[in-house]
UniProtKB/TrEMBL annotation, chain A:
Subunit structure as annotated in this protein's UniProt entry: Heterodimer of an alpha and a beta subunit.
Gene Ontology molecular functions: electron transfer activity; flavin adenine dinucleotide binding
Species this protein is from: Parendozoicomonas haliclonae
Gene name per UniProt: etfA
Binding site for FAD: 202, 227-228, 241-245, 258-265, 279
One annotated GO biological process: fatty acid beta-oxidation using acyl-CoA dehydrogenase
Function: The electron transfer flavoprotein serves as a specific electron acceptor for other dehydrogenases. It transfers the electrons to the main respiratory chain via ETF-ubiquinone oxidoreductase (ETF dehydrogenase).
Known cofactor(s): FAD
Protein family per UniProt: Belongs to the ETF alpha-subunit/FixB family.
All residue ranges annotated as the Electron transfer flavoprotein alpha/beta-subunit N-terminal domain in the record: 3-182
Record's cofactor remark: Binds 1 FAD per dimer.
Keywords: Electron transport, FAD, Flavoprotein, Transport
Pfam families: ETF, ETF_alpha
Lineage of the species this protein comes from: Bacteria, Pseudomonadati, Pseudomonadota, Gammaproteobacteria, Oceanospirillales
Descriptive protein name: Electron transfer flavoprotein subunit alpha
TrEMBL record, chain B:
GO biological process: carboxylic acid catabolic process
Protein name: Electron transfer flavoprotein subunit beta
CDD domains, per the entry: ETF_beta
Matches recorded under Gene3D superfamilies: HUPs
Cofactor annotation: AMP
Organism lineage string: Bacteria, Pseudomonadati, Pseudomonadota, Gammaproteobacteria, Oceanospirillales
Amino acid sequence: MSILVLAEHDNASLNAATLAVVSAAKAIGGDVDVLVAGEGCGAVAEQAAQVDGVSKVLVADNAAYGHQLAENLSLLITELGKGYSHILAAASTTGKNVLPRVAALLDVDQISDIIAVESADTFKRPIYAGNAIATVQSSAPVKVITVRGTAFDKAAETGGSASVEQVGAAHDAGTSAFVGEELAKSDRPELAAAGIVVSGGRGMGNGENFEILYSLADKLGAAVGASRAAVDAGFVPNDMQVGQTGKIVAPELYVAVGISGAIQHLAGMKESKIIVAINKDEEAPIFQVADYGLVADLFEAVPELTGKV
Amino acid sequence: MKVLVAVKRVIDYNVKVRVKSDNTDVDLTNVKMAINPFCEIAVEEAVRLKEQGVASEIVVVSMGPKACQEQIRTALALGADRGIQVETEDKLDSLAVAKLLKAVYDEEKPDLVILGKQAIDSDNNQTGQMFAALTGLPQGTFASEVKVADGKVSVTREIDGGLQTVALNLPAVVTTDLRLNEPRYASLPNIMKAKRKPLDVKTPADLGVEVASSVTLLKVEAPAERSAGIKVGSVDELVEKLKNEAKVI
């Protein structure tokens, strides 16, 4: 068996999500090749070659792949992927955008967001917002799969010595173009990879009040997240959203502040090791999943907590 | 221009699902069903494009058993012009739906196809992308803004870390994210009017599509329960527990 992993990167460095995908690939077994497609992405390829367990790094350096447009990238992966038994990518917005397109071009079904590898053809994945776990078996000649990053340990960033091979194929479908992007700037750790996450919900009242969460987060070295209610109310930008339709996190410690705990939100964080809930409504569903619950006014409890940790 | 919108009948998002005791699937008997929330956003966007004078006709399509006509009627009540149901009792995977949708697309020849980004039952997030691949159309997934001008559609996409804008040649495929719009409610007169709007029923055989899947569902289980936690009385106690018991800070 041989497995092709699509590297997630920003043309400068390899995203940690890819390391978890490499681990999932190792659990399936076989040679693991990593495809780095981008523009000026040589440094990423060097990084990928160091990752423990990677046999070969394929580099497709071309302007057509600069912004990972699905139309172009899927043609490349489909061409390269025909020789592989599995094609894997992180269940990130990039992986979710590109991989189903690859699967359809190969005329195979795709398995999304796996959380466990049972065998080379059998996988577990959450359905119904994480309220049920399905075990599925695929008979497709090429198994196209996205991997939930938080469900697998990250492969070591060093210890590997993969060969780096250039692939020439430039596919430009010519149907789409990158116009621009607007990335939220943050000095705090990335939400999906943080060891501690502090999240606020509708109970925060407004965007300014998130300052008290930022203070707590900075003290803990934590990332700040939010519930859909807080995002929809315009308190914070949407890339902070934790939940079924936002980011899935599984940190050591998750602190939910002013979050009631709707199914949609729980789907994004209930794999966290320790969950702390601070809410003034003692009936809030979040207390049913919290390891430690504090029934209190968050505007008093959070500053006090910041002072004491 | 003509807009095709795909909608799916799913369990109502407020219902907490229960796994069947024999672990074959989740139990959907006597459970409230509704139009998938992302599909509702897709219908709303199409209706807004019509109100702006950009779209001239909205066709809404759903695949599944007869009951999904209910969701098509809902979409018609929200402002779609006519409906197509592809009737099948088979459980459809995303690739099968994408193939059926391609067959409908080939007959209808719309300029824009709008889908939700994912259905809240299977949580796949595949159909829009697969359909785009099969038709060779460009895709604007996870859209939070859609603007049609000069034969192109500009789509602002929600990506990890922020927003990205792409320009797609028409015809194109757009899948909706939550913040694209706030869907309206159907008014009673519109619900009555929707009953008289045309609704065609086809079968996969009419469309010449095989709906077989290469994925077998072996088992469905309830997720592992979290062990019950405790309520602490004060911030001091919380800090003490986190430091000494859980050892996470």
